[in-house]
UniProtKB/TrEMBL annotation, chains A, B:
Pfam families hit by this protein: polyprenyl_synt (PF00348)
InterPro entries: Isoprenoid_synthase_dom_sf (IPR008949), Polyprenyl_synt (IPR000092), Polyprenyl_synt_CS (IPR033749), Prenyl_diphosphate_synthase (IPR053378)
Cofactor(s) in the UniProt record: Mg(2+)
Protein name: (2E,6E)-farnesyl diphosphate synthase
Family: Belongs to the FPP/GGPP synthase family.
Key words, A-Z: Isoprene biosynthesis, Magnesium, Metal-binding, Transferase
Organism per entry: Sessilibacter corallicola
Tagged with keyword Repeat: no
C-alpha cells in the first residue's frame, strides 16, 4: 500500500511538472532544457509526497490542485539544488546520479534555470488554471515564500556556508537545518493541509509532525553521508566531512545520531495520535525518512 | 511638478523597501546586508515610479498598497542585477556607482541575496499586511511571475547571453529586450493599473504605452552605452561593445537609434490620448526615458 502510494505520488508530480514547466521551443531551448533537466525525472520527491500524504490524512484525495502544489514545491527544491551545487557554493559535480546542472549546461544557464524555477513555483500557484479560491492560493504562496526566502531555506544555506570550519552546538545546528531543509518540508505538509481545508487544531498537529520529520530527515542525511556509498547516494559520499561542515554525526557520534533520528520518528508518530487510518501514509513516511538508505 | 513626483516616488519606495526587507539580526547579518546593499539606497527606481504613475493616471493616489507593489518590483529588479553582474554572466564589477554585490559580499552570498530578493517580492504580495483583496493579490503575483520567469526576464537574459558574437536582426533584438527589460516594465505599469482597478480598455492602452517605453528604455540604454561616461552611468561605459553584444546602435547606427527612441516616445504619447491630465506624469516619464543621460 505505502510503496504503491509513493509510486503513484511520484508519477503524479512528474506528470504535473511536465505539464507546468515551459515546453521546449526554438526560442527557449537552452533555458528550458536546463530547467527540465533539473526538475524532471529524478529525485525522491519527498516534498511532493508529503503534500499528498498531508492532504490525504484529512480525507482529501490526490487531485489536480494538489498536483500543482506538489509541482510548485519540487520547483523550489530543484532550484535550490541547482544553486547549492554551483562552484561558489558547495561545488558539487554530481546530483541525483547525473552531472549537476552547471556541469551539464554551464554556470550561467544553471543560475538562470534556478532563478526561473523559483519564479515558476509562484506562477503555478497564481495561475488561472489552478482551480482554488484566491484566498487559498494566497495562503499557499505565503507559506511557500516564507519557507523559501531570507527567513527560511536561503537563510539556512547562508548559515551553512558560514559554518564551514566552525563548531556549532546542537541548538545552532538544528536551527540551521530548520531553515535549510526543515522550512520547505514544513511548508509541504502545511500546503497539503491548506488545500484540504485543515482546521486550526489539525494544522497545529501536522505542523508539529513536519518539524519533527524535517529534523529527522537531516539527521539521517548526515548518517548516510558517512554510511552510504556514492553510487547509492547519487552524490559524493563524505562530502560534508570533506568540507569540514558540522553534522549531527560529527557532533553526537554515529550511534547517538541514529538514536536521535529514531527518537524524532517516535515523536512524529505521537503528534498524529488524533488522526485515523488516513494518516497511515504520513506514519509510514516518518519511518521511511529515518530508515532510507539514500 | 514632475521632478517632485520622481523625488516623492523614490522616497516612498525606499521607505517601503526598508519596511519590507528583513531587518539585520545577528543570525542573518551577512545575507540581509547583501540584500539591503543591492535593493536599498540607489538606482533610478524606474519600475516603482511607473507603477505609481500608472495608478495615478487612473486617479489612484500613492498609498501603502502601491508602496508594497513598488517594493516588490524593485526587489525583482535588484535580484536580476545581482545575478546579471556575476562572473559567469556579464561579469560586471560596478553597479549604481558602487562595487557589485558579489564584489562587496562574495559570490555565494550574492547568489543567495538575489534568490532571497526574488522570494521577497512574492512574500510582500502575499503578506497579510498588504490590504488588498486576495483576488487582486493573485492578479499581481500572476503579472509579476509571468514577467520575471522563463517567459520573461530570465528568458531575456538567457537569449542575451547566447547572443554574444551573434548578429541579430532588429526583430530578434527587440524580442530579446521585450523579455529582458520590457516584461518587467510592462508588469510595473499593469500592476499599478490593477491596484487602481483599471477597466479592460484602460489596461489595454496602458499596456501598449508600457511596451513602447520599455523598448525606448532599452534603445536609450544602448545609446548611453556609447555616449555617456562611466562615472555618469555608474557602470562601465562601452561594456556591451566590449563584449561584442548586438545593440540598437550597432544595428542601426547612433543617429538612427536616437531617432528610433524619439519615435517610440511619440507613439507612447499617442497611446495615452484617451487619458486626462492625471496621466501627465506618464507622459513626462516617456520623455524622461528617452532624454535621460544615465
Amino acid at each position: 500500500m505505502f510503496q504503491q502510494f509513493l509510486k503513484q505520488s511520484r508519477t503524479r508530480v512528474e506528470l504535473a511538472l511536465d505539464t507546468w514547466l515551459p515546453t521546449l521551443s526554438s526560442d527557449t531551448t537552452q533555458l528550458t532544457s536546463a530547467m527540465r533537466y533539473s526538475a524532471c525525472g529524478g529525485g525522491k520527491r519527498v516534498r511532493a509526497i508529503l503534500a499528498y500524504a498531508s492532504a490525504e490524512s484529512l480525507g482529501r484525495e490526490a487531485a489536480e490542485e494538489l498536483d500543482a502544489v506538489a509541482a510548485a514545491l519540487e520547483c523550489i527544491h530543484a532550484y535550490s539544488l541547482i544553486h547549492d551545487d554551483l562552484p561558489s557554493m558547495d561545488d558539487d559535480d554530481l546530483r541525483r546520479g547525473r552531472p549537476s546542472c552547471h556541469i551539464a549546461h554551464g554556470e550561467a544557464i544553471a543560475i538562470l534555470a534556478g532563478d526561473a524555477l523559483q519564479t515558476q513555483a509562484f506562477q503555478i500557484l497564481s495561475d488561472d488554471q489552478l482551480t482554488l479560491e484566491s484566498s487559498i492560493k494566497i495562503q499557499l504562496i505565503k507559506e511557500l515564500s516564507l519557507a523559501s526566502g531570507a527567513q527560511g531555506m536561503v537563510l539556512g544555506q547562508a548559515i551553512d556556508l558560514s559554518s564551514v570550519d566552525q563548531s556549532l552546538n546542537q541548538s545552532d545546528l538544528e536551527n540551521m537545518h530548520r531553515c535549510k531543509t526543515g522550512a520547505l518540508i514544513r511548508a509541504s505538509i502545511r500546503m497539503g493541509a491548506i488545500v484540504a481545508s485543515a482546521n486550526e487544531r489539525q494544522l497545529t498537529a501536522l505542523t508539529k509532525y513536519s518539524e519533527l520529520i524535517g529534523l529527522a530527515f537531516q539527521v539521517q542525511d548526515d548518517v548516510l553521508d558517512v554510511t552510504s556509498e556514492t553510487d547509492v547516494l547519487g552524490k559524493p559520499k563524505g562530502a560534508d566531512e570533506a568540507m569540514n561542515k558540522p553534522t549531527f554525526v560529527s557532533l553526537l557520534g554515529l550511534e547517538q545520531a541514529q538514536k536521535f533520528a529514531k527518537n524524532l520518528h517516535h515523536q512524529a508518530l505521537d503528534s498524529l495520535s488524533d488522526f485515523d487510518y488516513r494518516a497511515d501514509n504520513l506514519r509510514h513516511l516518518s519511518g521511511y525518512i529515518v530508515n532510507r538508505s539514500y
